[in-house]
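This part of the workshop introduces the protein records we will be handling. An example says more than a description, so a record of this kind follows.
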Amino acid sequence: MSSKLVLKDDLLNHFPEILDHVSDAVFIFDHEARILWLNKGVCDTLNIPRDVFIGKTQQQLVDEGHIRGSVVYSAIRQRKEVSGIVNTRAGIEAMTRCSPIFDSQGNLVFVVCTSTDIKELNDLRVTLEKEQRQSKNYLRELEYLRKILLLNEDFIFDSTQMKSLLEDIMKLAPFDYTVLITGESGVGKEVIAKTIHTNSTRKNEPFIPVCIPAIPPNLLESELFGYEGGTFTGSLREGKTGLLEIAQGGTLFLDEIGDIPLDIQVKILRAIETNEIRKVGSTKTVKLNLRIIAATNKPLDQLIKNRTFRKDLYYRLSVVPIHIKPLRDRPEDILPLCHRFLQEINKKYTLNKTISKEALDVMKQYSWPGNIRELKHSVERLTALSNGDLIIPDDVKKIFKYPSVGDPENQPAVTESPIKEFEAMEKDKILNALKQANGNKKKAAELLGMTRTKFYRRLERYS
């Protein structure tokens, strides 16, 4: 028994030395996020002596520029393990995990954090992939399983149109050609783009989706191409890596490409043609190795006629054009989609909702202007408003303002879809805000809690 105590004491005495031999950076904080101890890995990573850090808070490290980002405070606030990305002054990007430790009364005593260089993780992944390639049989089985998972999780369909589309995707995926995906809003253009990426030779590299309208026009160039430090007021001192560069080796998905300004179109075209970019404020070029997939719900041919979209960029993007038909043209897909959405909702909320065949027949008669996105929101509404576990035709007719079941023709008389209802409500709010602000758009945006960019976009949509 005494030998065990001696061993335990010896272990405790050498514990700091043991942690110094751990390759990861290890911090120990108190309940106020003040550093109590750190291992040699932290000192090596930040290139600063240990005694400089002891007693400082995580916020002080951020304020002094040693790191960007903090996970400790989230772990303290949420009282559970939290993970996140932290960047160092030296340009190291680290995956950080912080775990709170409590005493017997449940009081927070310590927070232990470990950080691993993401580059090291990527190197380990590359090594693992090389080892996996040694077994061709294993890889074939892995590819087969991935395709099965793909069909079960991302591609939900039963129509011949989508089956044919999937066959085309499997044929073109291995080639690095640019792809232009067209179709109405909500048909699943990003799902198609992900499917192409997942079945390509770039599947183990990043898939970076970019929604063009979500980025303010004045920031779009710097977000896509990056910038050098100090290029403009408010820019980061060390500069910023653009999304095109972040997607290196993988796939960049440019959603709503029809909304991209003409001056940026020229630079996108050049990036595709030369496979290189130049950051804002830089004279150096950066070589690119990526695939570009673009998507739009707008008629690009009409935009070309209106001279708001470049014809040469259109030809560059549409080497392989893909058109996704709207849901109303493939009603066979409504049943598997509904079952999938119900499965997700039942799992999330511990429900046992099902939908009757008759209810599905009624849903097939609807035109679904919002496509799959509208269908998903409608299923969510049905699960919330239906009385029993079985969703029946009356439930469907109620949310879409159908006539009663006793209607002799039993035909849908839809006045508005849920999306149309929402848009009408949002339009009223915008008009009321403009009245309150006496036509001042800036004040109206503030009243609604919207950014000016978002407000102007909504205003343009409803005008």
User: Anything to note?
Assistant: The chain has four domains: 8-119, 136-323, 328-415, 425-462. Residues 425-462 form a domain with the Arc Repressor Mutant, subunit A fold (CATH 1.10.10). The longest helix spans residues 418-436.
